[in-house]
Amino acid sequence: MRKPKIVILGAGYGGLMTATRLQKAVGANEAEITLVNKNEYHYETTWLHEASAGTLHHDRVRYDISKVIDRNKVEFIQGTAVEIKTEEKKVLLEKGELEYDYLVVALGGESETFGIKGLKEYAYSISNINSARQIREHIEYQFATYNTEKEKDDTRLTIVVGGAGFTGIEFLGELGNRIPELCKEYDVDFEKVKIICVEAAPMVLPGFDPELVEYAVAHLEKKGVQFRIGTAIKEGTPEGIIVAKGENDVEEIKAGTVIWAAGIRGNAIIEKSGFEAMRGRVKVEADLRAPGHDNVFIVGDSSLMINEEINRPYPPTAQIAMQQGEVVARNLAALIHNKSELESFTYDNKGTVCSLGEHDAIGVAFGKKMVGTKASFMKKMIDNRALYMIGGASLVAKKGKFNVL
Ligand SMILES: Cc1cc2nc3c(=O)[nH]c(=O)nc-3n(C[C@H](O)[C@H](O)[C@H](O)COP(=O)(O)OP(=O)(O)OC[C@H]3O[C@@H](n4cnc5c(N)ncnc54)[C@H](O)[C@@H]3O)c2cc1C
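# flavin-adenine dinucleotide complex -> structure
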């Protein structure tokens, strides 16, 4: 009998979780499982702010996919998906194509610039290993160049971070530690460096407990970060950004580095393939299938689920992506085993911890608020747990964070 073909697109948190759980739930003779990913490695997206600031080497952030999958059960293809032809049950790759009976789309998200002019062209975004490396090297280049020029251009030492959400704040936390190192390394006066966070919303870290936000802001300000809250970026330019606070209060901020960390949308393939989507994210059914597509599951940043309590979408997180991956693996196993009833996904919010550099953080875990080294310890445990869930103790031993003091 022909084995059903399962194709998983993307080996991030959602895709790898699906693959590693599925390989345990079905026998080698029961299904043909193929995992496709752009690179032969998985990267911890949640650690990319560290690689971008240069506080953690990018090789620490990634590991070989082949090390965590059972190659007797899962075939890995390094390839780039281009489009999904749902009617033909096919995925087009840059090189070749794949047929499927069941598909899992776990391609992650992309930076959303909300149509703000010039941001795509002139701002960097923390998206993957290569963009993180580029940001780190760009900032270093600015510092290295500063003192070699006869006429000093102070704007080389200005870094603007667009967005005071989770990613922006975590990146600022790393910069707070990295900038003094760079100043020392390149003989730059710390007083000349400007780190400016521009946020359109009236507060930092919307949705976080106000007391924790206050702690984070005070911590980052002490490290030299200036906050421009209630201020919208109107345009990115080759020289920096144009911002506005109210209608008439328009200002140009010249900056050698602009990082856009304020928005995320689903992978472009979603819309290209004709799925109904909101900002590239598909509002999935309770069992994580795409509406109208009984054989297509979508997880992670390319999916969207509504938090019924507040009638707003859950923010896209690794925590949700991993939990979805577990449910999809069980639902695929059920389909393979001819069970008609599929499990509905319920989000189990285990808390959120936002780092503020290597040894500080804020967060809520197990229903308790925490700050400082305690929260930082918790953050590292969360990071290690994500490794453990996918690759077990050996992966934690290789890639885990043990700098807990
Ligand atoms: C700096 C930063 C910090 C964050 N911190 C946290 C945090 O502390 N906690 C938390 O829960 N969430 C955090 N997040 C959010 C979290 O990282 C994402 O929600 C999560 O990575 C989504 O998982 P995913 O499986 O959907 O996608 P990803 O983990 O991004 O994986 C997508 C995979 O698909 C691959 N891919 C993309 N396009 C293609 C293609 N065309 N063909 C083949 N492969 C492709 C990519 O290479 C990648 O391997 C953070 C995000 C950032 C950027």
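# post-check
Residues 89 and 100 are 6 Å apart (CA to CA).
Residues 9-15, 36-39, 42, 45-46, 48-49, 80-81, 106-108, 126, 166-167, 170, 267, 269, 300-301, 316-319, 321 surround flavin-adenine dinucleotide (CB under 6 Å).
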